[in-house]
Specification:
This protein is an alpha+beta fold. It is 36% helix and 20% strand. The protein has 5 helices and 4 strands; from the N terminus they run αβααβααββ. It has helices at 19-34, 44-60, 73-80, 104-112, 115-121, and strands at residues 41-42, 89-98, 128-136, 148-158. Strands 1-3-4-2 form a 4-stranded mixed beta sheet, sandwiched between helices.
């Protein structure tokens, strides 16, 4: 169960989130708070990474952490969220797709019920997050022409 008194998400100027994306961010931070963890700060760089990946999966009809060209997920994220100026850098990612749609609470529940996704959401090292939700009425490839919503969350820490 998600605590009702979740910390407010910190929004940086210039990061526009849909209501679904805002809900996912809020619910993940509420889940972390219920588990005595600090909230994640919204990152423009990680949001750009997540959004680009969601859009690529929708356009190319695939569903995977790696990019369509086979690039590892961490290399894709690193292009948006560089590591070169930091002594410590780490990233993680949660994905889901649902047809025809999904709301933030259902997304959180799906991830809570998956050990790997739950572990990502509860990792105490993460400091930042990027959130993306893309909806299309007809997705190709693995989505078989269905209406789908694809959600990507990219987690990160740099110090």
């Amino acid at each position: 169960m998600v605590a009702s008194a979740a910390p407010a998400a910190t929004h940086r100027p210039g990061i526009a989130l849909s209501s679904l994306e805002q809900g996912v961010l809020f619910d993940i931070n509420a889940f972390r708070a219920a588990n005595h963890l600090a909230p994640l700060r919204l990152s423009a760089a990680l949001t750009d990474s997540a959004r680009t990946h969601s859009e690529q999966m929708e356009a190319d009809g695939y569903f995977a952490h790696n990019s369509f060209d086979g690039t590892a997920f961490w290399q894709r994220i690193q292009a948006f969220y560089p590591s070169s100026k930091y002594g410590f850098w780490s990233v993680g990612e949660n994905l889901l797709w649902s047809s025809p749609d999904v709301d933030a609470q259902k997304a959180l529940t799906m991830w809570e019920n998956s050990p790997e996704h739950r572990k990502n959401m509860l990792d105490p090292h993460w400091q930042e997050i990027g959130v993306s939700a893309v909806h299309t009425d007809r997705a190709p490839g693995v989505y078989q022409g269905l209406a789908v919503t694809i959600v990507t969350t990219d987690f990160g820490v740099r110090r």
